[in-house]
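Narrative of accomplishments. A recurring question from our advisory board has been how the design workflow behaves on a single, concrete structure rather than in aggregate. To address it, we present the structure tokens for one chain from the evaluation set, followed by the sequence designed for it. No filtering or post-editing was applied between the two.
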């Protein structure tokens, strides 16, 4: 992430803890100025949301589950194919 978006900034929007789990709703923003997932730098600024659930053990993160708006990220980077017109038979 840092190689593709060296100016990346994460912001926690909301956080909920229960037992040994912490759920965090976050947003990150940055400029695509390095290769990311094989995509050469586009120079575009992006803003992406996500949710992560961490499980803690002995005060440390033991495992993590994350969902992030990767489709929205790819759209902001301009790498999604253009929709094809629907042709009626």
């Amino acid at each position: 992430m840092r190689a593709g978006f060296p100016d990346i900034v994460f912001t926690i929007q909301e956080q909920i803890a229960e037992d040994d789990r912490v759920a965090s709703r976050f947003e990150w923003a940055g400029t695509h100025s390095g290769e990311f997932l094989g995509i050469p730098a586009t120079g575009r600024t992006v803003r992406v949301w996500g949710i992560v659930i961490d499980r803690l053990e002995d005060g440390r993160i033991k495992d993590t589950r994350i969902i992030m708006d990767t489709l929205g990220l790819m759209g902001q980077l301009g790498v999604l194919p253009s929709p094809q017109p629907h042709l009626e038979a």
